[in-house]
Structure formats: structure tokens, C-alpha cells
Amino acid sequence: MRPIGSRRRRIPLSLRGFLLVGAVCTGLGLVMLTTRSVDPPLGLGFPDVSGLDDESLELGEVWNHGEVLASEPTTKSTAKRSGGSSGCATVEEMGEVFAADVGAESLRVRRLIRNHFALHGASIVRELPPERFCRQGFVLAKASEAGFGNEMYKILTATALSVMLNRDKFPFGEYVAYTNHSFTLKEVKHLWRKNDCEGKYERSLIIRTDDFEKPAETNVLCSNWRKWKQPIIWFQGTTDAVAIQFFLKNTHLEMRKAASNLLGQPETLNRPNLFGELMRAVISPSKDVEESVNWALHNGSDPDIALHMRMLTNRSIRGMQAALSCIKRSLLSYQRSMARPRVILVSDTPSLIKDISPYLQEFVELRSFKGSISKLASIRERLLDFRVKDWGPAPRWVAFVDFFLAARAKHAVVSGAHRRVGTTYAQLIAALAAANQLDEDSGTLGFSFFSSFQSNLLSDGLANQGGWGHVWNRFAGSLSCRHQPRQCAHTPLFPPGWWDGSLQSPTPRDIRRMEAFGVRLTSSGEVDESHLRSYCNKRKSVVKTLPGAPLWGRVKANFAATHLLGYHKRFIQGKIWFLQCAATINVLARLENMRTWYVSLSL
């Protein structure tokens, strides 16, 4: 035992102390890492938040005696260029092109939409004589009451498609009111029978479906949809701004021209605020939601800025700091002497609003919807069922109030997040807010959409923003610099669907995904047009249809006859056929019971 003991005594005291200090530091580091993202703010005043920032955030300099002071934009010097070269860009550099005013193009599209509905809206079409009504074409949009952003894009994509193709109870009907430009399926079926379209004009009410989420089957790139003869078209799986933009690369010139007229040229990133103008034309908050919005604003003036934070129950200090910095920049972008600007805060994580408010409320007038309407005696009783969904399962009615509340912003919308910035919900808030602020007399917009990124989201550039429908997806490839500092970037109101811009680049995953559509992309995002034409020429067109009305008698008779035959094989075949028909009937029943989107236009 003596030799062992002697060895221990020969360990230098300095080494033992070094090991002890190292162990203590490691333990403290682990504790800090596990608690940093969930700890609430320390209750410090707004001017002193720099003590929480690892990037020298000094928001106390934003205001001085009620006035906004000039400030330098976020530094880009620490961003690492790919391969040590200058062949990449930061998010702010990528967003510089989106600082341009798109008011003129948006106003052109507004007039196009207005003229379209004036000629082909439901109020006009339902009064047509039978021979003209039975020649009409319709576009269907069916959405579930799930996530607001994705489902609303289904409706808006169908509306855009109706304009492109010259064709003519909604989801969320409890929360969103719609104009009279649309039919329900029930009304179309009634008018079809009333005008005897099938008997006298030999035109059956058939629904042709095309599923964008099935690349091998969709005709979005290879078919001329303007020549489709079926009365109803249902373009499925259009949960973001991407699907409608595939028509910009359609192999038929007629389709590309129709798409470019509405969507703008694909090589130009400053394109019209299409979805904002569509929302302005076809939706508005329901009466209950409108009253809740006004209550949250204390029946006062509209907010100057809206901040949307999608935090997924996380309370990240870095995300909060980046958002505060971006609010500072958005204020600097439009005003010089406003003493107390109004800011609206909306988030899927209500506790975050409590965390961030102390840093702002001394210098701006804050507003948010608390999810409580108990003080609204005039609507409390009739909203009991409406109120049950408060902060509950989807659809959360508070999300609709937040949406229309944030869309009141007069100057800017800021989008921040724990993981992915600029989701479909934030995109649509900014688009509608911008459409509400477009001046028809001057054609100027004067509205900005900003994306707020904390540095840890940009360690691999925009690669982690790769969600197909997210606003920065088309910039997530190799041209995005790694290890960027905090960024506050101008953001497109109409997210691009292709990679035609000089700073856009696809990820390897995007390249593989586009191959399934028959599109061969280069590493810089260029489309091989000859390969696409060859693919479409070799490809067999897929035509899928549904009857406009279920044939109950035929289904029952067929199944009964098959059952009475007594042959096991025939019975199994009949049972399978019956189940397939029953599934179709179930789909059609859901279509009829929900309010669905139809826009009618002449073929």
C-alpha cells in the first residue's frame, strides 16, 4: 500500500487545483446551458437589457426623451464566407432587394382581382341564363380547420387559380367572414339541377382533382389547365405560397403567360403582394373576432408595428433580444419623432409576452390580446362556445383574433421564432397588413416586413430554415453564410417559389425533391428547361375525377347484388368496391357540409 500512497502524494498541488477548477467550471457551464433558454427576464428596466446580450445589445439607445435616434445596422463582419471566399451573403444582404416598394405592382394586381370578380363573381354567375351558366367552370378550395396559415393558403391558391384560368360554409366560418364572390357546393349542385345542365346540355358536374403533394401525379408543370373541360377543378395540397408559382415554369406558353400576369415575372424578386390583395378582396374578421380586436386596441388607433413570435413554448432570451433589436430597426425605418409608437405583440406562447413587455412598455404603447373577453358583457353570452376554444386544441380562436389584430399594423411586421422564422401565419399577417396600407392614389406602399434571427439560428446559415413553405427556404443553400451574427432582414411579402435570384440557392434536399416533379436544378438553382420539356413529353397525363354528387342507389344496389351471388371471391371484390365508393361518398359529404370556395368564370 505504501507505493500507491506515495504516488498520490507526488501529484502536484497545482495540477489538483487545476482539475478541481475545471470540474467546477464544467458544472457551472452545464447549469447555464440548461437554464438559459427558459429563464424569464430578470426584471431589469428596458435600457439595461444589454446585460443579457452576448452581442452587445443596447436597446436603451433606441429612445432618447421620446425620440428615436439613428443607429447603425447589424454588423456583418463576423459572418464566415463559404470556403473562405466572398461567395455567400448574410440574411440582411439577401433581404436588401426586398426593401424596394412593390406598391405599383400590387395596385395592378388589385385592379386585376377587382375586375375579375366584377365580371365573374358568384352574384353575376348565378343570374346567367341556363345555356351560359352550364358552360361555367369553377375552382374548389377545401380546407380543414387546422393551422390557420397552411389552410388559408389553400383557399387563396384556389382564388388565384380562378383568376389565372378565367373560372369562376367556408373553413373557419365561425371566425372569418367572406365576400359574396363565392358559391357553396350545395348551391352549385342546386343551380346545376335547376338549369338541367346534365340533361339538356349534356354536361355532368365532375370534379377534376390534382394533388400538388404527389409529384409523380400532379399536372402543375406539364398540362394546359386552361383547356381542361371538367366543370370543377380542385388543386389539393397547396399549403403555402409555392404551389401556385409552379405555373410560372409550366411547359405551355399560355399557362406561363397567365401565371406571369398575376404573379409577376419569376426572375424578379420584387413581385406584387398577391396573397395580401386576395385576402383583402375575399376575407374579413367575423363580427365576434372584430369586436375582440377592437377591445384589445381599447377602440383606439391602429398599431404602428406588429411583432409575431412563434416560440413553441420556448422562452429564449436570445430570440427576445433579436426581436427587440429588430423592432428598433423597424422604428428607425419609418419615423423620426413619434414620442410613443404603438406595438402589438402576438405569440403562440403567451408567457413570452409577459417576458418581453417590461423591456418595451416604458417607451412604447403595448397592446396584446389576453385571450379573455369576460369584460365584454355585450358578447359574453353568445360567445360561450366560442370562448371554450380559448388556448385549446386547433383551431384556437385566439389565433384568429391575433391574426386580424396584427394585420392592423400601419408600418411594419416583425417575425421572430425559436426555430423557423417567417412561417405561413406570419407571412399572411404581413401580406394583409401591407394590402391594408396600400395607397391607391399614389400607388406607394411604405410598409416593411422584417425577419428577426438570433445568431444560433444562423450557425449553418439558413440551412435550418428549410421548411418548404417558409419564407427563407429559397435562400437556404450554399450562398447563405455560416455563423452569422444577429440579423434583422427585409422580407418578401410574396415568398419566392423558385431560385431565380442572384443570392438564392437550393439545398441538396430541395434538388432531390424537385427531381420528383421532373425538374433538374443546378447547384445555383437554375432550371434545365430542355430536361423539363423532355420529361413532360414522355410523361403520361394523370386524370383523376370525382362525381359532383354521390350515387347512393347505385352503390347500395351493386353491393346487395354482389352479396346475393354467394361467391366468396365476388363478395370480397364487391365489398372492396363498396368501401372505395363509401370513401368517395365520405369525401363528398364533407365537401358539401363545409363551406367551400368556388369562383366562377367563363371557360
Low-confidence stretches: 1-8, 35-77, 374-395, 551-603
Oligomer: single chain
Task: Quickly give the structural class.
Answer: alpha/beta
Using only C-alpha atoms, the radius of gyration works out to 28 Å
- How is the biggest beta sheet arranged? 6 strands, mixed
In which order are the strands of the major sheet placed?
Answer: 10-9-8-11-12-14
Write up what this structure looks like.
The chain has a domain at 103-272 and 591-602. Helix 7 (148-165) crosses helix 11 and helix 11 crosses helix 18 (424-437). It is an alpha/beta fold and 603 residues long. Strands 10-9-8-11-12-14 form a six-stranded mixed β-sheet. The protein has a five-stranded mixed β-sheet with strand order 15-5-6-3-16. The protein is built from 22 helices and 16 strands. The N and C termini lie far apart (99 Å).
Fold blueprint:
Blueprint: H1 2-9, H2 13-35, E1 63-64, E2 67-68, H3 91-95, H4 103-120, H5 122-125, H6 130-133, E3 136-141, H7 148-165, E4 176-178, H8 185-194, H9 197-200, E5 206-211, E6 232-236, H10 253-263, H11 274-282, E7 283-285, H12 287-296, E8 305-310, H13 317-334, E9 342-347, H14 350-356, E10 365-367, H15 377-380, H16 384-388, H17 397-406, E11 412-417, H18 424-437, E12 448-453, E13 459-462, E14 487-490, H19 508-516, H20 529-538, E15 544-547, H21 552-565, H22 568-593, E16 597-602
Parallel strand pairs: 3-6, 5-6, 8-9, 8-11, 9-10, 11-12
Antiparallel strand pairs: 1-2, 3-16, 4-7, 5-15, 12-14
Pfam families: DUF7810
InterPro entries: DUF7810
